[in-house]
Amino acid sequence: MGGRVRAFLAFLYDFVIGDDWRIAAGVVAGLAVTYAVSQTSVPAWWVMPALLVVLLPASLWRATRKR
Amino acid sequence: MGGGSGALFVAVFLACAVEAVEATTIVLAAGTARDWRSAATGTAAAIVLLAIIVAALGPAVAALPLRELRLVVGALLLIFGLQWLRKAILRAGGYKALHDEDAIYRTQLASATAAPRRRFGSVPDWYGFTLSFKGVLLEGLEVVFIALTFGGNAHNIPLAAVAAGCAVVVVAAAGAAVRAPLARVPENTLKFIVGIMLTAFGTFWGAEGAGAHWPGSDAALLVLVPAIALFAVGLVAVLRRGKASRAPAGGGAPAPEAG
Questions:
Q1: pLDDT tens across B139-157, in order?
Q2: How far apart are CA B90 and CA B188, in angstroms?
Q3: Domain range for residue B196?
Q4: Were both Cys, which of A47, A48, B243, B256 would link to B207 (CB 3.0–4.6 Å)?
């Protein structure tokens, strides 16, 4: 039973988080910043595109450095 | 069909087609190596279970408040999209082996052939049944997730369901016709495009759900999609240049792999 739960959790982790947990963490942080900025008078739409420009190359750089 | 509906249809169709190709490879391996009747029964059982899941989750997704739905689904789509795009860029840049349905089919075939044959009720071969059942259920869950989340966010679950259904029917018909792995489907290119679409829709819906207002509203997607595509192509070019400058003479390509 414990093995099945562990296998399901492993499947869930692989399904949602994938190869690089920093991407998931970055997306959650980016959305939190978007929410915070949206509560001010400053437009908040640019936060997520700006995050992509940093997050994706950083993840690729880590992956290629290992190979 | 308007521009938004067209983009929704294309995004769901392509994403679901990729999952359907992977499920078809598993069913073909189960049918060829084991028993076609058992593989077909496993596929049908998985489809029935998926239909029950859709019937249970569909109305629940449609009833959720749009802003919260966009925040959660946008975040998930963006995480999935970035993971797909990351893999696709690494593959296109030569740092990760290309997804090879032929190689995956041969691996599945070899392990399926080695397993002992066991009858269970009216199913002639239990291994063939479970292999295709699990394959169709897991890939099918991804199809259901994509169709429900895209459809729910765009307030058009019927169109998303039609797009998903078309993708599954087209791929399954092609698989049934050739009875061989769909190696000619440009799966790596499809995954690259789907990664861009998931990332763009995830960015758009996630930011809206978190309280942002996009300039031009829905039209912002028409800028986001090509901008992310250009950025991804640029990253591939950078990786290829780096790989070429570091490659030793006679260095081989990475071995094919799944995922």
A1: 888 888 888 888 887 888 8
A2: 11
A3: 3-243
A4: A48
Q: Which of residues 23-42 of A touch B (CB under 8 A)?
A: 23-24, 27-28, 30-32, 34-35, 37-39
pLDDT, one tens digit per residue, over B100-121 is 666 777 777 777 666 677 777 7
* Low-confidence stretches of chain A (pLDDT beneath 70): 1, 66-67
Contact B239 A60 (CB under 8 A): yes
Which has more pLDDT, B70 or B199? Answer: B199
| Inter-chain residue contact A63 with B90, CB threshold 8 Å | yes
Q: What is the pTM (predicted TM-score) of this model?
A: 0.72
How far is A41 from B83, CA to CA, in rounded Å?
33
Q: Note whether B242 and B94 are within 8 A (CB).
A: no
In a domain, B173, yes or no: yes
- What local confidence, expressed as pLDDT, does residue B51 receive? 85
The total domain count for chain B is 1
The answer to whether B240 touches B94, Cβ cutoff 8 Å, is yes
**Chain B (56-85) residues lying within 8 Å, Cβ to Cβ, of chain A:** 71, 74-76, 78-80, 82-83, 85
Q: Tell me whether residue A51 is in a domain.
A: yes
CA of B178 vs chain A CAs: smallest distance (Å): 30
Kindly state the average pLDDT of the residues B204-223.
91
- Total domains in the fold of chain A: 1
Residue A44 falls within a domain, yes or no? yes
On whether residue A14 sits in a domain, the answer given is no
Q: What is the value of ipTM here, to two decimals?
A: 0.89
CA atoms of B123 and A56, how far apart (whole Å): 47
Six token digits for residue A7 = 């296998």
In a domain, B258, yes or no: no
Nearest C-alpha of chain B: how many angstroms from A50?
A: 10
Query: pLDDT value at position B231?
Result: 96
Q: Is B253 among the domain residues?
A: no
Q: Which residues of A13-42 are buried (b: 16+ CB within 10 A; e: fewer)?
A: eeeeebebeebbebbeebbebbbebbeeee
- Asked if B216 has any chain A CB less than 8 Å from its own CB, the reply is no
Please tell me if residue B171 touches chain A, with a CB cutoff of 8 Å.
no
Contacts of A30 in chain B (CB under 8 A): 206
